[in-house]
Amino acid sequence: MIEIDDDSGTPPYEQIRSQIAEGANSGGMPVGTKLPTVRGLAADLGVAPGTVARAYTELERAGVIETRGRKGTFVAAGGDAQRDKAAQAAAAYAREVTAYGIDADEAVALVTAALDAGGVRTSAPQHVR
User: Fold this and answer.
1) Which residues does UniProt assign to the signal peptide (predicted)?
2) Which of the two residues, 125 and 66, has the higher pLDDT score?
């Protein structure tokens, strides 16, 4: 179930996006799970339809969900492929920072700063499988 925390500093679209992504990645929302319509989820959460649409658009770009025309929006099988690409990018980053003589703590701090600058909440550690 997706919930919006009005007291959070995280924008509602990001709360929606991250909860769906986590559900897809954890198996809580298995591949093929049908998601509510944009308008339906917006009404349930008390947010504007554009807020849900933005979350869905970002999730679709990342390969986490897919829209099948009038049939609806579903959790896609592409989430693992996206995770593999992210792991490859992380490995490339690790090689680069090692070549520059940057230690692991500083490399992680650089990533955290970049994520924070991009509006991704990093205050709580995220589990990666």
Assistant:
1) none
2) 66
Torsion angle in degrees (nearest 10) through CA of 54, 93, 78, 19: -40
The whole domain housing 104 covers 78-118
Q: What's the confidence (pLDDT) of residue 1?
A: 84
Largest Cα–Cα separation, the chain = 53
Q: Kindly state the tokens that stand for 64.
A: 């986490």
Which residue is it, tokens 């649409």?
A: 53
Q: Which residue has the tokens 């991250």?
A: 18
Sheet holding 73-75, edge to edge: 34-35, 73-75, 65-67
Please report which helix (H) or strand (E) contains residue 67, including its range: strand 65-67
Neighbours of 66 (CB within 10 A): 15
Dist CA 23 CA 46 (whole Å): 21
